[in-house]
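Justification of resources, computational component.

The compute hours requested in this renewal are based largely on the per-chain cost of generating structure records like the one below. Each record pairs the submitted sequence with a full structure-token output. That output is archived, and it is also reused by downstream analysis tasks.
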Amino acid sequence: MYLRLCILFVLLTALVGAEPDPHSFSRPEQAQVTHLDLDIAVDFQKKQLIGSASWDFQLKEGNKIVFDAKDMQIRSVQADGKYLPFALGPEVKWLGQSLTVFVPDGTKRVTINYATRPEAAALQWLKPVQTAGKKEPFLFTQSQAILARSWIPCQDTPGVRYTYDAKVKVPPQLLALMSATNPTEKNAEGVYSFRMPQAIPSYLMAMAVGDLEFRSLGDVTGIYAEPVMMEKSAYEFAETERMVDAVEKMYGPYRWGRYDMLVLPPSFPFGGMENPRLTFLTPTVIAGDRSLTSLIAHELAHSWSGNLVTNANWNDFWLNEGFTVYLERRIMEELYGKDYADMLARLGYGDLEHTLEETPSIDTHLKLELKGRDPDEGLSDIAYEKGYFFLRSLEDQVGREKFDKFLREYFDDNAFGTMTTEAFLERVKNRLGPDLGVDKWVYSAGLPSSFQEPVSTRFQQVDNQKERFFSGTTPSELETKGWTTHEWLRFLRGLPDTTTVAQMKALDQQFHFTDSGNSEILAQWLVTAIHVGYEPAYPAVERFLVRVGRRKFLTPLYRELVKTPEGKERARKIYAKARPNYHSVSVGTIDEIVGWGE
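The structure output for this chain reads:
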């Protein structure tokens, strides 16, 4: 009880001065949840979760508490053994419905009995054929940004944190996992209990159910995967414990107990999702050479930036991701050297340049205005890369030692709380200095005029080889030995519009890009192949788009396809086949690109 009161005090303190969340019906200033007891059964045949969510809460004013709900049936609400009146509000695009529960004086806990619908946006139900093992079905959730409300009635705002316990019943041949303490083996009953003692926001609620096994990678790290994926996964992520050690030395202790990872089927729409205690990962980062593990550094870094100190609402999203990219690159520099981190920064800048060209100027501010819009629109390179370069500019101005001390205190002072852009900028001005140009970075479009592009000496060598190739040097004579994924990406992204089919063929014959097992390299090669009209790669385009659901890869490929009438027709045919394999997060983006339903 004392622990819960302390957590509640931190949460209430963090909310002071925070603006109302435009993406939640809940009103935590009137009534705020503090703990969840979840009891659900997973029904693969009906594609449904059935059970109850029991919420402890504090009533501050009035006699009602408001939750967010979407794509679900509310069967009843109870408190102290009695049924309570409740009301569902009208359906609002993106937001779903408000669920208002009317409570008698003195009520401190309500139980919501509910069932999800098959179309619940957070849930992806996979048939056995869509998994690596091909034998058992699979279910995973994706709650960020505001999809938790489609599988749990909750106060779905990052400004509200709560602890939780859960009981989940699944078919006995499957293992259930959550963003909480987790089992490492299946049991005969198929009933699993979970506990999350640290307070989290709803977007970090996560669950997965499948034919899974576990392998330890160190004292506090481990990997879950389908059996047929375990050897590859364990090898790829073997250095995770070193990453934990590196970031702890810089920014303080890891406060979540364990850091385990789960390799999901390829339909997962993101590279990773930083669910506490159980990062969700796409299998597309398994390249066989540990060359894409900066993604692990990124998701691990969220254990400090985002999970520990969270954006108050989605207009402040850069506070989660800009910080995390900064920490990610510091981890990679610590483990692999400055020149490696410089490559990542330069690639990130290239992504940011592209995003700035395509994005309306108002959406290139770090502080966003997403009211009345899908908050998913804020998940762009502006938050990630512009946010990173802003923090990098602070480091450059005050020095790394002083900036590291500032960040360590920032995480310690605001642990398990929320942060607004305004409060962060005030902290910068008070502790680092008032004349660091922070307002221009945050409230202006694009990049400040004082910004200097990052430089990578290793990329300069790549550019030299690219120039040699376009000056007539054959691919076999290029000096590419020892290149990492990042150097190959630099090479491929730099291929000019004038690249010919003959040049593509020569590169492919030498380096076998069309058959690459590295998803980053393959995706970039296929974009260029579509642009140039390199037809030998077209079957690989279709195979890739049908197999992989990671939105980062899908978006540029479909956008390149639809640039011509013939390409658009091909895109729609492929999409008709691939769409059932994609998560709703990816479907929403690709539907718009290909004009699905027109």
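The CA atoms of residues 160 and 204 lie 11 Å apart. The longest helix spans residues 338-358.
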